[in-house]
Amino acid sequence: MYSLTKKLETMSKPIRKPFQFETDSITSKNKPNSNNEDINSVIRPNSSPFNHRDLSTGELRLSDTKSYKFTSNDLIECGVIGEGNFGIVCKMIHEKSGTMMAVKRIHSTVDERCQKQMIKEFDIVMRDNTCPHIVQFYGALFKEGDCWICMELMNTSLDYFYKFVYHKLDQFIPESILAYITFATLQALDYIKSRWKIIHRDVKPSNILVSRTTLKLCDFGISGQLIDSIAKTRDAGCRPYLPPERIDPTRATLDGYDVRSDVWSLGITLYEISTGYFPFREWTSVFDQLEQIIEGPSLELKIDRLSDNCKNFVNTCLNKDEKQRPKYKQLLEHEFLRKAKQLHKTENVSGYLSHIIDGLEKNTDKFQLYYYLPSNSQ
Ligand SMILES: Nc1ncnc2c1ncn2[C@@H]1O[C@H](COP(=O)(O)OP(=O)(O)OP(=O)(O)O)[C@@H](O)[C@H]1O
Ligand SMILES: [Mg+2]
């Protein structure tokens, strides 16, 4: 078990990762009203006027019948799961209920208005999630300017999962499993759009989580807020899953975000998990990236072992002209997914997921951030 001091040390550790960016964050040093006090108020959309201190106590809703008021002191850190561009994800246990969870701590790169908005979004998502392929949120609070988001702990992410299969086991993910992953992800994307009017905007393997029985999408909603807040300081060229229409400087004034941008990111994700490689050669600069994506030939998944239905599905998502890309409903009707809709009943998805997770849990090898397409291909 980690002590609270250890917990705070980890929190204040500067996080570095390729594509790291700097923003004008409000730190706990210069932010007014910042201290360690916890004030007993539950986070509700209609609660008293916004005040940072009010948000250091939250509601942890573990099920319809089980909820607790909580502060960060009720959670004990049990290890770091991973670091992203916005913060760190740790495994933590809620002592009172004995519930193990994943807690994402995001640096305070967003202002108070955004923080309040984020809490509102979490609250809605927490209470209203009936989709089996969306990660369950338990609650959120703010601590010293960091937002702590508590959610269901999954075994791993699709990112580690596919890298382990291709680059450690030297195998590939079977097509029936690819279809199941695609179906689960699409169902979740369609749900967040139709139910909550949320466009994900950060679809990629690390945001698709894997358990022994299923897959679940995470990092939506908040990602919209965060991406907006960092977009001013972060070069679009540093976001490898963005579609041509989002990175082309000649179309930089483009307003709004269409689900078809997420369809492109899904296409890149599917290419990656079907081949084991990110579908571009390694970029030497942002200009190189722009050139490959915008001016280069269209991407095409061409592997013989995959069916025409599978290749057609992925290649349709990767159409450079967003107007030609299908939206979710049309994709959900695609022939490639016909069997996947029944797969959990007819084939052993959980057997496969469990088998790979068993191996991953024993694995000590580190994986690269990206396995770029070898330079002699495409
Ligand atoms: N609920 C969860 N259960 C298990 N692992 C999780 C959970 N949430 C996130 N992770 C994992 O923690 C790691 C860090 O996640 P995080 O979202 O901070 O970064 P990322 O997705 O890699 O990048 P980005 O910040 O650009 O979204 C990732 O490997 C992610 O898959
Ligand atoms: Mg993530």
UniProtKB/TrEMBL annotation:
SUPFAM superfamilies: Protein kinase-like (PK-like). Residues 22-50 have a biased composition (Polar residues). SMART domains: S_TKc. GO terms for molecular function: ATP binding; JUN kinase kinase activity; protein serine/threonine kinase activity. Its EC number is 2.7.12.2. Transmembrane segments: none annotated. Residues 19-51 are annotated as: Disordered. It comes from the Eukaryota. It is an enzyme of class 2 (transferase). Keywords: ATP-binding, Kinase, Nucleotide-binding, Serine/threonine-protein kinase, Transferase. Signal peptide: none annotated. ATP binds at residue 104. It catalyses: L-tyrosyl-[protein] + ATP = O-phospho-L-tyrosyl-[protein] + ADP + H(+); L-threonyl-[protein] + ATP = O-phospho-L-threonyl-[protein] + ADP + H(+); L-seryl-[protein] + ATP = O-phospho-L-seryl-[protein] + ADP + H(+). Residues 75-337 form the Protein kinase domain. Belongs to the protein kinase superfamily. STE Ser/Thr protein kinase family. MAP kinase kinase subfamily. This is mitogen-activated protein kinase kinase.
